[in-house]
Design goal:
single chain; 955 residues; alpha+beta; Serine Threonine Protein Phosphatase 5, Tetratricopeptide repeat; 14-stranded antiparallel beta barrel; 40 helices; 14 strands
Length: 955
């Protein structure tokens, strides 16, 4: 019946354990998600300190959840812990390389810490993902400006303008770059270069007044008065109230003796309102004009004639002269008058077009050329002008991504030989952008067929195949043309660019063997290109070909022996091979060369951690400890080294040294969960239960360990209790009725830090009377963990009349302890017994073994006993089963020392077993049975059966 109950209890315990594990798994997921959600809610409120706390809890429960880890990095960044944020986010990218937010966070961190070169790298990586991000381009430009690299900043600005030509903000940035360059060229007398840059500013639009003035001045210095005058007119069209521009125009007209136009210009200005400045200028110019013309200018004469007669000859002369002299106001008046009478006149519309072109009025010029083309589609001159305008307009539409308008225009232009090539190239780009790969392929194949010796046509097809992710065909095509045209260097560079794209694609699809082939080809093509070596190394490591990876790494180091990244890669290869000692040696040298490099430092720490773990697994604990000390020298705040080193010290029993290590670690990591727990464990092992409870209470266990942890805290609380009562009962039965007996015992224990005091009262009853015995024990522990036991007792009958004992216990090495002791007993028959004891014990993880040898003397004879016992602690480390055995000529059990009178000198053997269980941390019970066999004569034996029951409780 008892066995059935035991089996039932075990079954129920196993079911409960499985249910707890399952429930713990559910709680694990729920709790990490809940903490993560709380963290994001606090982050939305900009309360990132609270968000960080929640995120740390979530990541402890789910350390492999990269969403949580990524947000943890953001929280560290927001609270200003930038170095910690960098470590976390780099780890996230290592394990999940495609994350965009992590790169954005690292970009912000590197910018704040003024690591601008690294920040530019992250911008470039992000631009590979979103190449048309205006914000990222602006960040890149700003970073180059912070680095003082104006050349790259300007290049990036120009590239950004090419992407967003209509964005006003970007246009202003682009204009500033052009103006700055133009001013430099002007100061260095490179007037032609300055003019080109100023013209680009005007083409971009939104040029300021100063730009127009600077361009006018540059043209004047070059002696190009017509261009200067045209520029002044353009400026006045944008800034009609600009006095400096108007003065420039009047001055140019005066310089060219175009007094009529100059006077007309001033008069138009005075119509807007009175001006003393221009009134005086008008009088001056009139006098100058009078002196110059002396009334002989044919233009004036024809003007007077036309006013009187409206002569066709006078009209044509005036219109042609006004156009040639730049009298745009007069010309426009004449054209308006002519077109009113004949709106579809090819001649007048053509002159109207010429006038708009001279005035740079592109919108009206475009409308006019369209009208001419509609009216006269067979006129070759008009068709040519329309094609020029149409091509430029289509390019503008293309740049603005207005493909709906650009596409038919380019399609029409392919019919004209002068535009066929360029129109098809634009058509290819539009089809590629629209992912119309079939149409793009048709166009590019046509271009290659017609222009087989132009590498750029092949490049377009390579780009198309890459966009279709048909990298094998793109790769083969590039090499085909390289073999065909070996002296064209452009094919090398397109292969390089394609190879990098192809490798990235293959890496994403984990086709590492193919990556190796491409990387080796790239090395053959560019033997000094370190990037190719990096790709080859990575592919070999990914496929486990570490020896090949080493060969590539050392080949690269022959080219760049001091390259930091290559040596980091080399250390990484040795790490993957499990040769952590070699990796640590390489990184240690790098640390000497780059003492301020966080990458080198973190790599060294990581590799030392791996080497330390390897030493632990190999049982070389001393080497592991020394390595962890070195790790703390390199990085005092490292948590891994602190935790592992303190754990080893605790296992060795060096609790004080472990506490010192943990205290230093907690200076840098104040609330580190594992350190707080280990500090509590060290105090617990050292017997300082109050401190143990204090620190283990701060520990936040995983959800599936929560109940176990709470139970252990109750255990520590119980260990702090100072009082204990033990009640036991011993029943002893033999084959011989006269020596059957029972003993009842009650004990009181007082538990102090270094001392334990015990008072014991034994009761035995027989037919001849009642035996009483009182005893006292004193245990005292020294600072080196050794201790002694002092025992004394007195009894009236059955038990020894007097007894005393002293034993000394000395721990040594690891988990060993020796005992030496002496006992004295005065028996009721007046004999005196003296016993010497030698014992040794060893503790393994869950096993405790003990052996004792005892020699007893009554001054006449010597008696001896050898006793061994063992305990196996169960899963909770408190309940245990015990087994024992002895052989000798004296009873070994002090509880039966009254039998010394009866059974002394008989050869006896004993076996026994028991089970002791804690029903709570304060109360336990035990049961033990022993079977003794006494040889009382050569052929006679007595069997004795002992049953021992005990209940113990603390308060």
């Amino acid at each position: 019946m008892t066995q059935k109950k035991l089996r039932l209890n075990i079954t129920l315990f196993l079911l409960f354990t499985l249910l707890s594990i399952s429930t713990g798994g559910i709680l694990y997921g729920q709790d990490s998600d809940e903490y993560f959600e709380l963290a994001k809610q606090e982050g939305k409120k900009n309360n990132f300190h609270k968000a960080l706390d929640y995120c740390l809890k979530a990541t402890k429960l789910a350390p492999l959840d990269m969403d949580i880890r990524e947000y943890l990095g953001k929280c560290y960044m927001e609270v200003g812990q930038l170095e910690q944020a960098r470590i976390v986010l780099l780890d996230v990218l290592k394990k999940s390389p495609k994350r965009v937010d992590a790169r954005h966070y690292l970009l912000n961190i590197e910018t704040q810490t003024k690591r601008y070169s690294s920040a530019v790298c992250y911008v470039n990586e992000l631009l590979e993902i979103t190449p048309y991000s205006k914000t990222l381009w602006q960040r890149k430009i700003n970073l180059y400006n912070l680095m003082g690299n104006r050349i790259e900043a300007n290049r990036a600005t120009i590239r950004l303008y090419q992407i967003f030509p209509e964005d006003e903000e970007i246009k202003a940035m682009y204009n500033n770059v052009l103006k700055e360059d133009a001013e430099k060229k002007a100061k260095s007398n490179n007037l032609t270069g300055a003019v080109k840059q100023y013209e680009k500013v005007l083409e971009a639009g939104n040029a300021d007044e100063e730009t127009y003035l600077n361009l006018v001045n540059a043209y004047l210095k070059l002696g190009n008065y017509n261009a200067a005058l045209s520029t002044a007119d353009k400026g006045l069209f944008v800034y009609p109230n600009s006095q400096p521009l108007l003065d420039k125009k009047i001055g140019i007209l005066q310089e060219q003796n175009q007094y009529h136009q100059a006077v007309s210009t001033i008069k138009q200005r005075l119509k807007k309102g009175p001006s003393e400045h221009y009134s005086n200028m008008l009088l001056y110019l009139k006098s100058e004009a009078a002196f110059h013309y002396k009334n002989t200018d044919p233009y004036s004469l024809y003007g007077e004639l036309y006013q009187r007669t409206k002569s066709r000859e006078a009209y044509n002369y005036l219109l042609n002269t006004a156009m040639s002299r730049g009298y745009y106001g007069d010309a426009q008046d004449l054209l308006n008058e002519g077109l009113k009478a004949n709106p579809n006149s090819k001649e007048l519309l053509s002159k109207q077009l010429a006038l708009y072109e001279a005035q740079q009025n592109h919108a009206k010029a475009g409308a006019t050329i369209q009208k001419l083309y509609t009216l006269y589609p067979q006129d070759t001159d008009i068709v040519e002008k329309y094609n020029i305008w149409s091509f430029e307009q289509a390019k503008t539409d293309y740049n603005q991504k207005n493909y709906k308008e650009a596409l038919p225009a380019f399609l029409r232009l392919t019919a004209y030989p002068d535009y066929e090539k360029y129109a098809n190239q634009y058509l290819f780009s539009i089809y590629l952008e629209q992912q119309d790969y079939e149409s793009a392929m048709y166009v590019v194949d046509g271009l290659i067929a017609k222009y087989p010796e132009e590498p750029h046509q092949v490049f377009r097809k390579v780009d198309l195949l890459a966009a279709m992710e048909n990298y094998p065909e793109a790769y083969e095509l590039a090499y085909q043309y390289k073999r065909k045209y070996p002296d064209v260097p452009e094919y090398n560079y397109i292969i390089k660019e394609l190879s990098i794209q192809y490798i990235k694609y293959l890496n994403e699809n984990e086709e590492f063997d193919k990556v190796k082939d491409i990387a080796y080809d790239l090395i053959d093509l560019f033997p000094r290109d370190l990037q190719a070596y990096h790709y080859a190394i990575g592919a070999n490591v990914a496929t486990g070909d570490y020896e090949d990876a080493l060969d590539v790494a050392y080949a690269a180091l022959d080219i760049a022996p001091k390259d930091r990244d290559l040596r980091l890669k080399l250390a990484g290869i040795y790490s993957e091979m499990g040769q952590h000692k070699d990796a640590v040696d390489i990184l240690s040298y790098l640390r000497l060369e780059f003492p301020h490099s966080s990458v080198v430092k973190e790599s060294l720490i990581e590799e030392m951690g791996k080497l330390g773990k390897m030493y632990e697994e190999q049982g070389e604990l001393e080497k592991a400890k020394n390595l962890y000390w070195d790790m703390l020298d390199v990085k005092p705040k490292d948590t891994l080294a602190t935790i592992r080193l303190s754990r080893l010290l605790i296992e060795e029993g060096d609790y004080q040294k472990a506490l010192e290590v943990l205290d230093k670690g907690l200076i840098y990591n104040k609330n580190n969960n594992d350190m707080l727990y280990l500090k509590g464990v060290a105090y617990e092992k050292d017997g300082q239960y109050e401190e143990a409870l204090k620190y283990q209470s701060l520990y936040e266990p995983p959800a599936n360990k929560y109940m176990e942890h709470k139970d252990h805290l109750r255990y520590l609380e119980a260990k702090m209790l100072k009082n204990q009562i033990n009640i036991s009962y011993l029943s002893s039965r033999t084959d011989s009725i006269p020596i059957n007996t029972s003993v009842a015992t009650i004990e009181y224990l007082r538990l102090e830090k270094r001392d334990t005091y015990i008072a014991r009262f034994n009761y035995a009853s027989r037919a001849t009377g009642i035996g009483l015995q009182g005893e006292a024990d004193w245990y005292h522990t020294f600072s080196n963990k050794s201790y002694f036991l002092l025992n004394a007792g007195i009894a009236n009958r059955f038990f020894p009349e007097l007894k005393a004992g002293l034993s000394f216990f000395q721990p040594f090495k690891n988990q060993w302890q020796a005992e030496i002791g002496i006992r004295y007993a005065k028996l009721s028959d007046e004999r005196n017994l003296l016993t010497g004891i030698l014992g040794i014990e060893k503790t393994y993880k869950r096993l405790w073994l003990n052996a004792k040898g005892m020699i007893m003397s009554d001054s006449e004879d010597l008696y001896h006993t050898l006793f061994i016992q063992g305990r196996f602690f169960l899963d909770n480390d408190k309940d245990y089963v015990t087994a024992m055995a002895s052989a000798g000529t004296a009873p070994e059990d002090q509880k039966l020392d009254f039998q010394t009178n009866t059974l002394l000198s008989y050869v006896n053997t004993m076996v026994g077993a028991g089970y002791f269980r804690y029903v709570s941390h304060r109360t336990s019970f035990g049961i033990m049975g022993n079977w003794y066999n006494f040889k009382i004569s050569p052929n006679d034996y007595i069997n004795q059966y002992n049953l021992y029951l005990v209940v113990r409780t603390k308060f």
